[in-house]
Design goal:
271 residues; alpha+beta; Immunoglobulin-like; five-stranded mixed sheet; two-stranded antiparallel ribbon; elongated
């Protein structure tokens, strides 16, 4: 599905064809625009069937501004970063039948990764973080949509663990507090975590995104897919036949987070 920057006009290519791609004989057409909740954005209007494009005005592609620092645990899930627009056509054919056609697209803000909401860092920060994570070849060749999706999924995987924020790196002295589930922290509380812990989360998120994009430890990937050996030129590599233990995170990500993972079974919000 095509993605466009929120607050800008969108030009859609419009054509009416059957299931085999053959043009239909259209005598008239109307359209309206709705969002992903089927709320009407623009009322029904006529469409000139001689045209092959439709321009959606920028004011119809707005996303309401969000004060991220005012979000609470209860309101976080209601925050809408992206929205869909669906142009719903009703086309009258020369035989008198009316056929519906939908043309959907997505509108997104300029910054699609919001610290403490769907990521541990913005996309711009991730570009810098990638300089500190070795072997990010898949990240380097991915497009923006792929990077954003991988970063969001990486955060979700990391949030399946429970953490302790080590105040001075001295957990054995009791200088730490239970963070629990990071997904329960609103952005304003996420920012209160120690800089060292946030840095570790950024590095781990990037490393996990690399794995999601198809990079990372290839031998583990081969074993998960059932490959026991492969030959490259005159070199043969053999892998263990046992399935690797699923730790929910890649080894690379766990290396950054190991000292922060809590074995405490209590589950709760940050205190």
């Amino acid at each position: 599905m095509n993605t466009y920057l929120a607050g800008t006009p969108v030009q859609l290519a419009v054509s009416f064809t059957d299931s085999d791609g053959n043009p239909l004989s259209v005598t008239s057409a109307t359209y309206r625009i709705v969002d992903d909740n089927s709320t009407e954005i623009q009322a029904s209007a006529s469409f000139d069937i001689a045209q092959t494009t439709l321009t959606i005005a920028s004011e119809l592609n707005q996303i309401a501004a969000i004060d991220f620092d005012s979000l609470t645990y209860e309101t976080m899930e209601l925050a809408r970063l992206n929205e869909a627009r669906i142009v719903e056509f009703e086309v009258t054919l020369d035989d008198g039948n009316i056929q519906p056609f939908d043309f959907p697209y997505i509108i997104v803000p300029r910054e699609r990764l919001i610290t403490g909401l769907n990521s541990f860092q913005t996309l711009r920060e991730a570009y810098l973080t990638s300089m500190s994570v070795p072997g990010t070849t898949a990240w380097a060749t991915a497009n923006e949509d792929e990077r954003v999706a991988a970063m969001i999924e990486a955060r979700l995987r990391i949030c399946t663990f429970r953490f302790e924020d080590i105040t001075l790196g001295q957990a054995h002295l009791g200088e730490s507090h239970l963070v629990g589930n990071l997904s329960l922290l609103p952005p304003k509380d996420f920012k209160k975590l120690t800089p060292r812990f946030i840095k570790a989360l950024k590095l781990a998120q990037l490393a996990e995104a690399e794995e999601i994009l198809g990079g990372g430890d290839q031998s583990t990937l081969y074993r998960r897919n059932g490959l026991t050996s492969q030959t490259i030129g005159e070199t043969q590599e053999t892998y263990r036949t046992t399935t690797p233990l699923d730790m929910r995170l890649s080894k690379a990500a766990l290396r950054y987070l190991g000292q922060y993972i809590s074995l405490n079974k209590r589950i709760g919000r940050a205190g």
